[in-house]
Amino acid sequence: MGASRLEQTNALFRKNLVIQRRACKTNCCLVLFPLLLCSVIGGLQIAINRATPPEDPTRFDCGCSNVTVDEDAVGGLSCPDECPLPRAPRWPPLLRIPPPEYRAVADGLFPFTDLPDASCRAGGSCAATFLVTGGNQSFVASVMDYMFFPVHNASVNLSAPADVSGLSDFVLASDGFYAQNFLQNKCIPNLTLSYPMQIGSEIMSRGVLCTEGSMLWRDSSWLINDELYRGYYQGNNKNKTDGIAAAYDFLSSDQGNFNLIISYNSSNSYDAFYDVEYTVPVLNQGGTVQRPHPVQVPRLVNMASNAYLHLRGNGPKMSFDFVKEMPRAATHEGQFDISPLVGQLPFVWTMELLFPVILTNIVYERKNKLRIMMKMHGIGDLPYWTISYCYFLLLSLLYVLSFMLFGSVLGLSFFRQNSYGVQFIFYFAYMNLQISFAFLMARYFSSVRTATVTGYLYIIVSGLIADFLFRSYVEDVSLSRSWITLMELLPAFSLYRIVYEFSQSVLVGRYTTSSGIHLIDMGDPKNGLAGVLTIMILEWFLFLLSAFYLDHFGSLKNVMRKVAVLVRTRIDGNRFQAAHQQNAQLQEYRASVEMERTDVVKEREVVEQLLQESSSSGYSVICDNLKKVYRGQDGNADKIAVTGISLSMSRGQCLGVLGPNGAGKTTLINMLTGFSKPSSGTAYIEGMDIRLEMDRIYTGIGVCPQEDLLWECLTGREHLMFYGRLKKLKGTALAEAIEQSLRSVRLFAGGVADKLVGKYSGGMKRRLSVAISLIGDPKVVYMDEPSSGLDPASRKDLWKAVKSAKQKRTIILTTHSMEEAEVLCDRIGIIANGSLQCIGSSKELKDRYGGSCVLTVTTPAGEEEEVERLARSISSAANRAYRVSGTQKFEVPKEGLKISEVFRAMEDAKSRLSILAWGLADTTLEDVFVRVAKDSDMSTVT
């Protein structure tokens, strides 16, 4: 059994910790990068603050910039600058009426006796007077009865803070800067109207009193005109009001006609309040007050229109729910805040900067096959994903905290005014989404350089598109929010929406009582933050699940293949029985099997016999008809890399796999180690099927791949320590195993073991790869050309290590060195054109395929023909195989050959030929290899 998940996680964590400690400077520079951006923006802000005068300390957060105290202004406030309204709020419309002390009374100024007595001014109970005339007095009287919504209860309470339309039935009136009254034909004693009002994130109750609205009839519009003029011209309150709220002339209106002229006051020094105005809250020392939203003419028209519709009795009414100002920017004369304006795109780019970093790290491990190397030595998917994800998450958290910290310390309002808790929630969610997105995208890159360039292009292009396109869509209120949600599915747009809303809240909050976004604002549908957070959480889960699926299965095709194999195996009830059932397919090509050499056929029969047995405990590796076909691309034919190889390897045995380049040796090793999936057939490693149980197989094998898959930022000792922990080695046992491995491959002396692998030569890396494959006592070891690139001395040491290691395990070794194969391998199989050509020990192969001796004779030029006759005199079956510059080689069959006769013939020939050198040698393994490969090529051509 291999290391547990906890042990795997511990080993991987320690290895990554060493790597990150060595990359400390790079990581620190990365985490401190936000300091650069915040310093630039903060420096600009400081320069702007010094260049502009400070704001008045008596400023109130009222929706206008630079609000100051002005004793001459109505209400004591002056708001000289235009308010910013990027998203104007809804406010109930107010009707402008004179203050109680200036309302029209019977004080001799007016000639009419129907005005209230002047004593009402002392108690503030004077009615608001409206003058009315028209051609049909009875009709006008009926209309006037419905000008004000009647209230019969002593108190009216509304409870919808966000819905100002609930106030539309009541005629709210103002005689100053805030709503003080609502009008009724007749007020019940102590009648009040209460309604909630939301200011920023706070909700407070607002109460107004009942004021009577008096509708006085005049016989003609001329009388109304004279009365209004007299009140204004002769009154002592001409700079305040003339005492009359408004006047109506219904002309010829009746049940079928509705004509109307309205007279209203626009002559005093505050005539602007009679037109559409904005309402904003003002915090004063005494509490909360409200600037009104007088909409004089529309409100007066609406009152008469509703009364006329009510009189018609058809049920409809014209509800004047609210007023809104046109969206606009602020004209601010105080100190300018730069961070929410210029910070959107730079802040987005800064937050996205980790994406190419994460993507490059993941692709680096995949491209250099470090991921599969770790997997082949026992690292499971869960520990790898856990450690990798946690590392990137920790780096991201440090980056976010650095971003927020430096921004706040440098005084940027973008960070200070928005809730730190809300900022962390959204940045944390985005960072998790960004990590999972990088894991998913890494699957589609095979080059680190391509991944890096693509990652940086993504953040630059997506940021620009978001700033110039997505932002306009967000601000376009006519565009369906569904389109916005659809665009936010791209992580970069979700991030931009977050930063945009934070920036806008700071801009608007600069002119309101609520500054920035807080937890209570997350549910506000206007900013859309709740939707963005939901999208990011769902996408994070989906991306992570997809990345895990692709990493584990590769594709749906692989899943279906595994399911099919699993179902077939379960039906048969036993893995070996299931494999035996597959051998029925061998009948289809029995004729081709008969053409194979006897040793190959015998090996196949051994495999069949082992698969039929209930136990094959003496064999570590059994290959059953393994085949690998690479599908042709762009119209090319399929490439058969391995064709129906069947092999069996017992414990304590080293099998050498020989073959020319492209014969299929590495493909065979790749299938046995999980680098690639077999097209058909299977293999059993310690009784486990490579199609179904590679994760279990990995815990008991060692691999020395053809390429050195190493971390250049780790030392040789640290490599062995990491892989030793994966083999469940601990403490003293681990240290001893490392020392022994380093000595066996000559990496111990001179401090070589503690040097970074990036400084190793090619031969040193190769020896380290061999040491890694042998550490931890694996049951099966695969070595793909282990001695390539080694000098003779290192090769000899390596052979000693392998010979010592094979006593307790099965070793499969590929090589081009015939000497290495003879020294290390108990059995040798030669592969050519993807198929097994022969198998046996070195002596068996020489005897079977090398039944001849090689006679070599060197003479001066011109005597070649005499030498050839000499060779044929020794054996009539002698065949010349080589001739270059007087040196000739002849293959002489061993059958009937006597060495004494050869020596005698050569001694006789020296008297008549100038023989410079001669020799007689037995067939070498190299001769066998060349012959088998040549025969295979000839049979393929045939």
From TrEMBL:
Membrane topology, from the record: Multi-pass membrane protein
PANTHER family reported in the protein's UniProt record: ABC TRANSPORTER DOMAIN-CONTAINING PROTEIN (PTHR19229:SF127), ATP-BINDING CASSETTE TRANSPORTER SUBFAMILY A ABCA (PTHR19229)
Protein's cellular compartments: Membrane
Protein species of origin: Panicum hallii var. hallii
Residue ranges occupied by any ABC transporter domain in the UniProt entry: 621-858
GO MF term set: ABC-type transporter activity; ATP binding; ATP hydrolysis activity; lipid transporter activity
Superkingdom to which the source organism belongs: Eukaryota
The protein's name in its UniProt record: ABC transporter domain-containing protein
Pfam families listed in its UniProt record: ABC2_membrane_3, ABC_tran, ABCA12_C
Main location group: membrane
Family designation: Belongs to the ABC transporter superfamily. ABCA family. CPR flippase (TC 3.A.1.211) subfamily.
